[in-house]
Amino acid sequence: MDQPLVLEERSGQTSILRLNRPEVMNSLNFGMLRALADKVEALQWDQDVRVIVITGAGEKSFCAGADLKERATLPEDQVRKFIFTLRELFTFIEYMNKPVIGAVNGIALGGGTELALACDIRIASENATMGLTETRLAIIPGGGGTQRLPRIVGRAKAKELIFTGRRIDAREALSIGLVNKVVPAEHLIEECLEMAGMICEAGPIAITQAKYAINHGLEVDLRTGLAIESNAYWVTIPTEDRIEGLTAFREKRKPVYKGK
């Protein structure tokens, strides 16, 4: 029986998704894109899950990008379909209503780096290698890399990395702000779960609205961004969770949030 292309396990309120093609460095084909889309779309509405962690199966690779062997067999219209499917999935991950942590456990090239860029937070193992290497294949990043990378590391550094197709190690990724933290490989998932646990201590509606305000506010002028923030704040005011937070603070105890 074939193994699922995306494995899922739960740890408390966190879902860990593993890209499961380790024999080809977890490279992306149509099947894996569909499997990952099915998982994240279902998790968006799963009330038992507060945070999602995406990582790769095995110890060597997060995701080596598109499956170039499959790509070589595709006619031009199917290549366009693949890139469209990839871009739509990564955009869904970026804007979905729950925080997504990318656990970069090794090689993350091309679409692998683009998947990490679509995550809200990136934590890398010390052996991670990242890069948008597409120009070396006479194409450009097609899963959002030309747009997300400069927004994260700045225009000049993004142009350098994309124009050269250069690979960078975990320490350089940390130094330019591409990842939030670097940890030993054996502690990567533990570190991600620790951060997920801290997120889960906050109010679910507040986290959703904060993510919405940040994502949408960064794309507009400051005055419009402040209006987006204001509207997101208004959503939290009538919630039971807001009252619980105030009550717990007064009673000097941990709040118990229900997402209501």
CATH architectural name of the largest domain = Alpha-Beta Complex
Q: Output the CATH topology of the largest domain.
A: 2-enoyl-CoA Hydratase, Chain A, domain 1
Succession of helices and strands: EEHEEHHEEHEEHHEHEHHHH
Share in β-strands: 15-25%
Quote the average pLDDT.
95
Sequence of strands across the biggest β-sheet: 1-2-3-5-7-10
Give the CATH level 1 class of the largest domain: Alpha Beta
Major β-sheet profile: 6 strands, mixed
Task: Give an account of the 3D structure.
The chain is an alpha/beta fold and 260 residues long. The protein has two domains: 6-200, 2-enoyl-CoA Hydratase, Chain A, domain 1, CATH 3.90.226; 204-251, Lyase 2-enoyl-coa Hydratase, Chain  A, domain 2. Helices cover 49% and strands 16% of the residues. The protein has eleven helices and ten strands. The protein has helices at residues 30-44, 68-73, 76-95, 111-118, 145-153, 155-164, 170-175, 188-200, 204-217, 222-236, 240-251; strands at 6-11, 14-19, 51-56, 61-63, 100-104, 107-109, 121-125, 129-131, 168-169, 181-183. The strands form two sheets. The protein has a six-stranded mixed sheet with strand order 1-2-3-5-7-10, sandwiched between helices. A four-stranded mixed sheet has the order 4-6-8-9. Helix 1 runs parallel beside helix 3 (76-95), helix 3 runs parallel beside helix 4 (111-118) and helix 5 (145-153) packs across helix 6. The protein is globular, with a radius of gyration of 19 Å. The N and C termini lie far apart (42 Å). The model has no long low-confidence stretch (mean pLDDT 95).
